[in-house]
Amino acid sequence: MKTNTIKLMMISLVMISCSKSEDVANSVNLHFNNTFKNTTIVLGGAESPAATTNTSANGQVHQFSELKYVISNIRLIKADGTEVPYHVNDLDKGATVINQAKLSSLDYTLADIPVGEYKQLKFGFGVKQELNTLDQFRFPIFYETAGANDTEMMWQWATGYRFAKLEGFYESNHQKFTIHTGSTLNGKSGQPDTYVQGVDAYRDITLDLNSRLVVGGNHPEITIKADFDKLFSGNNKIIIDGKYATAPQQHAGMEVMVTYVNNLGGDGKEDRVGMFAIEKVKN
Amino acid sequence: MRMVIGILFTLLLMLSCNRGDSLVSENVSNPEISFFAPTDFPKLNTAVQGNKPTKYGVELGEKLFHEKRFSGNNTISCASCHNPSLAFSDGKMQATGIYDRVGLRNTPPLQNLAFMKFYNWDGNILELEKQPLVPIITHEEMNSSILEVISKISNDDDYKDLFKKAFGDGEITPVRIYKSLVQYEYTLVSANSKYDKVKRNEGEKFTETEERGYTLFKLKCASCHATELFTDQSFRNIGFPLNKNMEEAGRARVTGVSSDYMAFRVPSLRNAEYTAPYGSFGQFPTLKSVLDYFDKGVLDAANLDPLLKENGNRIAMSEAEKKDIVAFIKTLSDPSFVGK
């Protein structure tokens, strides 16, 4: 008797969820492919033969041992221009750390996206200022994820998240580079006119989908390519040296960091793409 | 117009009455407290207006200030580094936190904070209420998290009682922790030094050496150590020996401007006698050694403070002058502030 009741309940539950997803919404997977040009990056230590190497515009060979960045403020734009925000003010539900060392982190599934056709994807590279406060009380899940020992995406002193943590080696003698980005703005939360004395490392990315995304019966996927060749060879061609190998640290301050932010996430004005591109849309 | 305001006011009163009489009586039983605000001090930070110290807010804040459960292993409280008997500094070159981990910089003394525009050596904090979270979560300081802190103290009846008295109900929230801690800190006013008593004509007089020191001080130091706080709260690169830690860039870490590279907030000299060692990472063991360094000549830098550049990268002082200046600086010591 009991088993039957449970079975019945399960069946009706399945029916409910089926009808719901078919009529109203479905999931969309965002897959992040971190590359040097068209080659997916393999991380590795200084002597690792497996690590993918790349040569910068200035002829410097380099490779990554660590590659992480934060994606948040995700929005899908319908064919008719309607914007569908995805938990844009909730880091627990709408933000993630992409970590090349963790395969599972390269896929981020957006749940309950309304049925329809979409033409554009927008997201934040980093965390927008009004949410960038290390507020464990409001967003315990993201706080935990970002602060985990194997992730370390926090700047405690600035009470903000790290937006990118990129470390690796350059040139044949494997000198270390560590490039971290994050905002140091101050001001009243949510009131941009009060933001003072700091650097805004958040970048809003806008990518046109090369073919329409159709949300309906299937679970479509957008593959986003993040081409880290741009780190040293983007809008700014960087010669990696003592000054540029560490950002935002000594001898550098934040100016060097901003150079990298602009290469990775665009300048926030003309360039709203940075290193990102749509690789493919699979419906 | 007055009439309108009057009516509005009455309406407001009625509204708050409707909300619950308990709230009103709660406010009455937790009165705002006035803290000593010397008339010639700079004006209050605007954040004080939004977080005025109350009787129980301050009491709670002081208890939290000494709470070792703020740290991951229950060994470090705010007072561990901000020791009241050292004008809320720690006597160490660089702050030492949990598991003896050494921090980036010298622990700043806590005094007259309500009158400051910038906090920390690089001025990254503009409202003091945003500061308490930083040591709680910093690896080298308390290495905890705000929810961990709350879970540790939430079953403590003394805290339940104090949170209720301070905020009307016993709920312990991050914001309430930050606010009460800061209310306590706002009350840490030091303005009872010999210097203050001389200024206020309370019967004390400078000795001859102090008097000479004061004259020299006005000539050689007061352009930066200005106002009654003895800091103009500007950020300057004064060519002190450099902190080799890769994290250090001075104020440039905050602003991203290269002219702020290795610039630090001019420190207040009040209670300097109690806050050795000196410099952003405690480079100097004594006041005399600071003066010796200025006299000998500082490190050059593209953004070296113009006042030093104009003077050939140094502040020339004779040995006798240094003695007098140190004597004057010691008149800024406030024994009542450090419980002596």
Model description:
The complex is a heterodimer of chains A (283) and B (340). Chain A is an alpha+beta fold. In chain A, 18% of the residues lie in helices and 39% in strands. Chain A has helices at 2-23, 91-94, 140-147, 230-233, 253-265; strands at 25-36, 39-40, 53-55, 61-78, 83-86, 96-99, 107-114, 116-125, 154-155, 160-170, 175-182, 203-215, 221-227, 246-247, 276-282. In chain A, a hairpin with a 5-residue loop joins strand 3 (53-55) and strand 4. The radius of gyration of chain A is 21 Å and the shape is globular. Chain B has 340 residues and is mainly α. Chain B has 15 helices and two strands. Chain B has a two-stranded antiparallel ribbon with strand order 1-2.
**What is the percent of helical residues of chain A?**
10-25%
List the strand order in the largest sheet of chain B: 1-2
User: C-alpha Rg of chain A, in Å?
Assistant: 21 Å
Report the sheet-strand fraction of chain B: under 5%
Distance between the termini of chain A: 43 Å
Task: Please give a handful of descriptors for the protein shown.
heterodimer; A: 283 residues; alpha+beta; 39% strand; B: 340 residues; 15 helices; 2 strands
